[in-house]
Amino acid sequence: MIQYAMVSGSLWRDRDFTLFWLVQTLSVAGDSFSYVAIPLLVLRGTGSVSHMGLLTGLAGVATILTGVFAGALADRIDRRVLLIVCDVFRAALYALIPIVWLFSPQIWLLYAIVPLGAAFAMIFRVTYVAALPNLVNPERITEANARLSATYAAAAVGGPVLAGILSALYGPTAAIAVDAVTFTVSAIGLCFVRLRVRQPAGEPRRPDGLSWRDLVVGVRFLWRHPVLRALTMLLWFLTFLTLGLTDIIVFYVGHELRQSDTTVGYVLATAAAGTIVAAFVVAPARRSWGFGACWIGSYALCGVAIAGIGMTRSVPVIALLATTFVFGIGVAGICSMSLRQEVTPDHLLGRVTSSFWTVHSALGPVGAAVLTASAANYGVPATTLFAGVACLLVAVVGTLTPIRQARPERLAVEAP
């Protein structure tokens, strides 16, 4: 039986969870500055949505390649140390951008720094997911994910607004500098977080060696669980359809509708509020309606929202539709992540998480490049209509798979 050192009670009374929550909320707030500032920096330097899509695609490739070994690192190395190292490297990378821009703008530098930052972000995300069950009991995982998502989103609401204002006043590099500072603070805060051991006796935590076979171990576990298998396959297509959406919104609002950087920040900040709403409703919704209804319904809602973005020139309506999209992504994402954490043994969780993200993200870079190129050549309305309808079709396919199960955490893993 798995033993936990953590006692029951309010999550907010737990010192380690609360500290983890505080520093990561700050880090996400900083991330939201770069989330706005880097596309604006590229747009100012090139005026091209295709270049924005290319940068997003390169970051996606780096994420996928890193995913081959990120899970193995999370299962072998002390997870707290790994989180700290990732924050330190990201702080150094993003600090380099404003330093270089003080002397001369170098757009090419973004094509080196952003993929490297994405690689460390992938390792961090995998380790973060693997570490959360070391902070809370299994029955609190969905609640913990929801609360973290809510506070992350709250930080992300103010971040884009401030990033837009800061970019308008001092340039996008000032906003990126803020992100570097928050990574530094996060690294310091994580030094004081303690993770509990969550594994049964006799279960190896750190297997020997490091190779591509670690990815195979994770993929094999995903394949043997009927719902995780279906989720991975459908998200393969959904990531293709959605990864480049932020670039398209920034281009549409900032370039085609000729709105200011501040307005772009307001739109993305409003959209982030969708995650806050999702975090408040996801735990009771999953208990009441079940996993399948929440996940499938969320992506159906996403499809409607995506299709509508390019059909209007009203900035408030675009913001509302973007919020709806983010809400759907939030509900589906929290459900999916919680399910993986609930059914995966601790010693495999890093590799399973890494394999899940690596496989379902494989088409993401191609999708970002294709959709942004489509927006440039055929217009935003046609592009978002296609992506939205395709997203709806994927949701319909989900009703024909084991994803429709209300309580998939009770399903047994299929024998090899």
Automatic annotation (TrEMBL):
Transmembrane segments: 20-42, 54-74, 81-103, 109-131, 152-170, 176-197, 230-252, 264-282, 289-309, 315-335, 356-376, 382-401
GO molecular function: transmembrane transporter activity
Protein topology in the membrane: Multi-pass membrane protein
Domain of life, source organism: Bacteria
Main location as per UniProt: membrane
Gene3D superfamilies recorded: MFS general substrate transporter like domains
UniProt keywords, alphabetically: Cell membrane, Membrane, Transmembrane, Transmembrane helix
GO cellular component labels: plasma membrane
One Pfam entry name: MFS_1
Location within or outside the cell: Cell membrane
PANTHER family: INTEGRAL MEMBRANE EFFLUX PROTEIN-RELATED, MAJOR FACILITATOR SUPERFAMILY ASSOCIATED DOMAIN-CONTAINING PROTEIN
Listed name of the protein: MFS transporter
Lineage of the species this protein comes from: Bacteria, Bacillati, Actinomycetota, Actinomycetes, Micromonosporales
